[in-house]
Amino acid sequence: MSNPRQASSASQTPHLSPAELSYLYTSLSLPKGPIRPDGRSPTQFRPLTAETDILPGTNGSARIGFADGTQAIVGVKAEVEKTVLASDILQQDVENDLQAPSDRRDGAESTPSAAAGGHGSWVQMSIEIPGFRDDDALPVFLSEMMRESLVGSVTDAGKGRDTEMAGGLKGRLVINKRWHWRLYIDVLLLSQPLSYPLPLLSLTTHLALLSTKLPKLKSQGEEDPFFDDDWGVAEHLYPRPSPSASATSSQIRPPVTLLVISVGDNVIFDPNREEISVADAVLAISITRNSEGQGLKLLSIRTIDPPSRLTQPGVPNSENLSTMAATGNSDNAAAANPSAGQEEVPGVWRPRRGGIKRSVITELTRTVLKKGGVGEEVLEGLEGVEV
Amino acid sequence: MNDRRRVNGPPGGTRPPVFQSGLQSSNPSDRPRRQRQPAELRKIFLKTGLIPSASGSAYLEFEPSASLAANRSNPKSMIPPSSALKLTCTVHGPKPLPRSAAYSPNLVLTTHVKYAPFAARRRKGHVRDSSERDLGVHLETALRGAIIAERWPKSGLDITITILEAEDDRWWGEPPDSHDASWGIMNVLAGCITAASAAIADARIDCLDLVAGGVAAITEDVGASHSGSGRLMLDTDPAEHASILSACVVAYMPARDEITELWLKGDSSKAVLDDGDSRQGHDALIDGAVDAARGSYSVLSEAVKESILNAVAHA
């Protein structure tokens, strides 16, 4: 945190000594399964408390607190906005000239247009993290990452399903050809970012969007929108399955972004600050349920710069001037610059170098996506939260 | 409160006039089509050491697509059908950190990606917007894996990329909001990675390996008989494809067979692969991007070799 310019996507430079880092790395990379500092299993998440609908002035809101004291609040606000689209105006002008009015609707429906499919820029996301300016790299990176999967999750219009969510979140925001909703998602991290805040912010946003309600539309078709002022009949942004529907049609839910690290051969989920500081690779993987309600769909993967690259190297005893006999003059050159040594000494920390092997990426995504894997577990856990 | 002392513009936005004749010229048959094989990359021009005041620099340019070349030789429209990436990269450093900066045991890498105002079809402002900042973070992740940072304590390295011509996100003749996903940015990132790696080598900063960027995408073409027929293409030009379902950029170090940066987005589940290929869509996509990166690595290593030969000749 001392130098926020440097603390970009790599969260914060860890304040652990090389000896501590080496100890952590060894215990997390044990071949028979990692031993985590807080005793969790590799796929276990930190305990959290969640509540929704906490802010009366918003369309939807949620708060999640982790046991370590980090808390986040998300408020979702929706505004009605006029759709200004060059293509529609063009189209209407041309059609007015060329075609009878009865044909106009067919022509308009056949061409793909934002008026039908929605536009990604209608979802705006801002993230506020204490200690960071809002144009610093970390908030920008986090909000782009979460917005990208939110906007990109277009479900196929399956048979017998509610077609309201056919176009995903973007499609849901369309009111008619001339009007749409604009969604502001404001994420506020209340505490210092003790660990990389991505899982916390993603889960909170998920719950806030689930609890978001839009007023019920009274006008029809292409009229100017006019809403029911009874908040009791407002509709959820992510529609609930009607009780009459069969059990197979589960509710469509917003995507979730998971943070996964690999240490040695082990895959660890929801790392805390100490664990992420020794990670070999850090990936953020966004998933959602498949449209059939079975299995998971991958929406995006991004690598995150592991903070272990910014750590200080340990000095092995053989190169340490203070433990070495004064006669070791011949090795002086190497001793003066310990970082020049290439060989790995067991028990001595070296900052991670290089990237991720291809097989590790496959392994990480497979653990998230496989049937009964972590992704399903997280989504089931979230489905258990009463919204 | 209106300002009475000056003539204010209209409160809403205005739109430039569009003429019927202009509309008719953009009929779908003029849409540029991919002339390359699915696994064939565009040619890359890469030259280092063009900016003498910087410690390292590189200039990268993609080959114009077939339709663009045809339009240049035999212009049908004043508007070019597609664009080709052009960017410059400068490296300043390693240089001592300012006295006021906190102690850092490692090299402090700063990446700065900026579109020139005229780079894209829509003008970019002079202040970096969120997509440019996002690109900067991606580039930093890609390069930090290759640089041996603990060799340079208390020093800083500034990498500045100016994009002179960006890739289009879609064909310009389509209605401007028919789809809004920014696929061009992924090609831009791949170009940034390759150019930055060449510039770092030109600055004689030792790295684990050269990092090459590559893009692969799963596309659905206009003539597709049914949906769900995504094809894997390497080095896609978004203007040449009616719809891109999913795309992936990697930064890849061939000598170590490692990926330093991976950015995948979109729905990769609809990919139709060859028979007997049991990979999942996203795995095939990442492998495709790695193949594309291997291709650009061959150009990159030639450019770096040339830069070293030049330096030896002038020494």
Brief rundown of the structure:
The complex is a heterodimer of chains A (387) and B (315). Chain A has 387 residues and is of the alpha+beta class.
Strand order of the largest sheet of chain B: 1-2-3-5-4
Name the chain pair with the biggest interface and residue counts per chain.
Answer: A-B, 61 and 59 residues
Which CATH first-tier class of chain A would you pick? Alpha Beta
Number of domains of chain B: 1
Percent strand of chain A equals: 15-25%
Helix content of chain A: 25-40%
Family (chain A): Belongs to the RNase PH family.
GO molecular function (chain A): mRNA 3'-UTR AU-rich region binding
GO cellular component, one term (chain A): nucleolus
Organism (chain A): Penicillium chermesinum
What features would you highlight for this structure?
heterodimer; A: 387 residues; alpha+beta; Ribosomal Protein S5, domain 2; five-stranded mixed sheet; four-stranded antiparallel sheet; 20% strand; elongated; disordered N terminus; B: 315 residues; 5 helices; 9 strands; 26% helix; globular
Q: Could you characterize the architecture of this molecule?
A:
Chain B: It comes from Penicillium chermesinum. Chain B: One of its GO terms (cellular component) is cytoplasmic exosome (RNase complex). The complex is a heterodimer of chains A (about 375) and B (about 325). Chain A has about 375 residues and is of the alpha+beta class. Chain A is about 25% helix and about 20% strand. Chain A has a single domain (about 20-320, about 340-385), classed as GHMP Kinase, N-terminal domain (Ribosomal Protein S5, domain 2, 2-Layer Sandwich). Chain A has eleven helices and twelve strands. In chain A, the strands form three sheets. Chain A has a five-stranded mixed β-sheet. In chain A, strands 9-8-10-11 form a four-stranded antiparallel β-sheet, sandwiched between helices. The two termini of chain A are about 35 Å apart. Chain B is α+β, with helices and mostly antiparallel strands. In chain B, the strands form two sheets. A five-stranded mixed β-sheet of chain B has the order 1-2-3-5-4. The longest helix of chain B is centred in the last third of the chain and has 34 residues, at about 280-315. Chain B is globular, with a radius of gyration of 21 Å. Chain B starts with 19 loop residues before the first helix and ends with a helix. The mean pLDDT of chain B is about 85. Strand 11 (about 295-305) of chain A pairs antiparallel with strand 9 of chain B, so a sheet runs across the interface.
